[in-house]
BTB domain-containing protein
Amino acid sequence: MRTHSKVQGASFSRFGVNSNFPVNVILMQPTTSHETFIDRSDYVDFESTSKLRNWPICVGDKQYYVDSSIFSRNSDYFRILMGNSFFIEGAVRQLKILDESSKDILTLITAISPNSLGLYPDAIDERNVCTLLRLCDKYLMTNLKHNCIDFLREYRPNTQEPSEVFHLFYQLCFSLNAEYEHDPTLADAAVEAVGDTKNKLSKNLSCFQMFSCLAVLSDPMNIAEFHKFLLKLQRKSNDKDSENVKRVADSILHGGAIFRHRISFNEEVQGLGCHQCSMRPPVRQSRSKNRKPFVLSLCRSCNREVCVQCRRSLCSRLFEEWINELRS
Ligand SMILES: [Zn+2]
Ligand SMILES: [Zn+2]
C-alpha cells in the first residue's frame, strides 16, 4: 500500500502516473519537454510559447500562442490567413481577434490543440459544445463541427449528472441563436436522432436536445439535486448571468406546471392512437360493458390527441413558445 500512496501524492505531475499498475510505473511522455505547462498542472499554458506553438493570437487583453499548422489543418479561415503573406496576418505572423472574448477563443484553442499532458485536446462536453459550434461556423471548421453535432446527437441527458445537463440546457438556450433553426446539418442529425419526422421538434437538433434536457431536469427524481446545484451556481455568477440563470431555472422548477399539455376536453377515440407515444387502444376481447374506455385528450396548444400517460408530459409547442420568448 505504500507505493500506492506515493503515487497519489504525485498525481498532479505531468508524467501520466497510472495507479492501476501493480508496480509503481511512471510513463514518461516524450513530448512534454517541448511544451509549457501551467504551474503544477497537466495542462498546457497557452499564454506562453513553446517549440511548436509560436503563432500569437491576440484577443482582448490576452495573447495566446498556437501551432499554426494545427489551425490551418482544422480551419479554412485560419489556413488562408496564416499561410498567405498577402494578408497582413500572414505577413507579420500575428492574428488579432476583436469580436470574440478571450474565454471563447481559449475554448476553441484547447479543443483542437494538444492540451492535457501536451497530448490530448479537450473533449467536447456540455460546457463547451455550443461555443464551439458557433465558432466552427464562423471560422469554417468542418471536422470539429461534425464532432459537436455527433456529441449532441448521441447525448442522453438521463444518463448524465443533472448539473451537467443544466449546463447544456442553459448553453442551448442562449449561445445558439435563431439561425441554427435552419441549419441543414443540424436538421438532418435531428431527424436521425429522433427517428420521427412527425414531431415538430425533430426539425431541429438543438431544440430536440433542449427538450429532452428539460424533461430530465424537471423530473421529480432530480429536482432536489438540481436545487442544491442551483444555489451553488447562483452564488458564483455575476448579475447579468444570474438573471438568466434564474429565468431558466424557474422554468425547470415549475416545468410541470408551465409546459404540461393544455387539455380542453376528453374524448373516447376508437381505432386511433396517441399522437405522442403512438399507443393504440387495446383490441377488444369481449363485448363486456366493463372494459376501460381508451381516452385521448386534445391539447389546445399543440393540437395533438394524447393518452392518459402523455397528458402529464411536456408539450413541445408550449416549450417552443417559451424558448422564442426567452431569446427575443
Ligand atoms: Zn400540447
Ligand atoms: Zn401517449
The first strand starts at residue 55 and ends at 59. Residues 220-236 form the longest helix (17 residues).
